[in-house]
Amino acid sequence: MPNKVNGLWWGRFASPPDNANNGVTALAIDRDNSSVGRLFLAEGSPEARYAYYGFRFNFEDDRLDAQANNPIELYPEIQYPTGYSVPNIINFEGNIREENSQLYLDGTWRSDVDTNGTFSLRKDFNFKNYEPDSKYENWSEYKSEILSSKLENSALVFRGVADNKYKLNTTFHRTGRNDLVRFLDEDLRRLHRYLSPQLPRTYDLDNATQLSSFLSLAQHHGHPTPLLDWTESPFIAAFFSFWSRKQNPKYTVTDRPSRDNYVRIFEFNRSNWSRIDFNSTVILHPEQQLWFYELPGFDNPRLLPQQSVVSFANIHDIEFEIKYIEQKSGNKILKIYDLNANMCDEALRELDLMGINEATMFPGIDGTCKNLARKYF
Q1: On the CB side of 261, how many CA atoms lie within 13 Å of its CA?
Q2: How confident is the model at residue 188 (pLDDT cuts 50, 70, 90)?
């Protein structure tokens, strides 16, 4: 599969000169598919129309020839004006170009209802590693400053990772998968079929609340999802940073470049961030999405002790999207803290005294055994 075309593409389409048909579009092509993908459209005229299409293409020498067909509308109840037709087939021709280390796909389209126009898409692949806002060599200094920040703003949520090279990417997107229709229709229903005999309740995946709870359950047990785990506690985030590093044998505090010797904690300010209810339509929306939710903890005893908050994202590079919004709004939304990994043992001892350890974060036999093994062996 050519790396250039695989991935997520975001952009707009129009029909000049009067822009009678225009809107936003997204193209999702999974790494394991060589000729098919999914096209998502949100047309702004005459009313907002959201739909997705199957997408079959041929890619050679930076040229893309494709056809989208069999549309599924997300809001079929919308009544359109007389004479307005939803295309069943859309043909595309385009070329990929590179500009300032960014890939673009530009071209023309024509539908079976006698509409045509142009499109321009940008590939979501700018995986820049951002420098931290603050770097700490001392655990006490981090404790003092982060506690002050949280007390001043209860809307802050945190995510801890074991290495300061790790980015904000969902487990779903890390696998090279991009098509969320395929994820909902195939992967999630397969998981539902396998897990249902083992769960004390039946989850209705067509119910928004139960769908979100099932996704969270899958996330906490290692199945790839388009969710990211956050916590309302900066100390729980620190625990997961240091504990995850201790669990991975590739990390040592010696004989490694200095940049690799830091864990990272992300701080997200939800104060000015929009909130909407979770549902499958949100998942399939053709614009870049990042939403935060506090989900019900059906069959998931970890949510409450971890003070869990989850975010849904349909984008690879979440940091890049946040930085873009920061530039547009002028508001600081994301802060990054790097903590020296040499403070790992000290931090875990103090967090244990706060009641933050394996036994409390992972209720059950496994968590208790892991906690006792770390403390006494």
Answers
A1: 12
A2: very high
Degrees (nearest 5) of the Cα angle 121, 282, 19?
40
CA distances from 52 to 88, 207, 367 (A): 11, 20, 43
Report the domain count for the chain. 2
pTM: 0.86
Q: Does residue 276 contact residue 337 with C-beta atoms inside 8 Å?
A: no
State how far Cα 227 lies from the chain centre.
Answer: 6
Smallest Cα–Cα separation from 52: which of 214, 227, 246, 183? 183
As a whole number of angstroms, the distance between CA 171 and CA 164 comes to 17
Q: Which residue has the higher pLDDT, 40 or 288?
A: 40
Cβ atoms of 30 and 182 within 8 Å: the answer is yes
Residue 129, in any domain of the structure: no
Residue 2 domain-assigned?
A: no
β-pairing, 262-269 with 334-340?
A: antiparallel
Number of residues that this document lists for the chain: 377
Residues 148 and 11 in one domain: no
Q: Which amino acid is at 307?
A: Q
* 61 part of a folded domain: yes
List the domain range (segments joined by +) for residue 42.
Answer: 7-123
**CA–CA dist 119, 275 (Å, integer):** 30
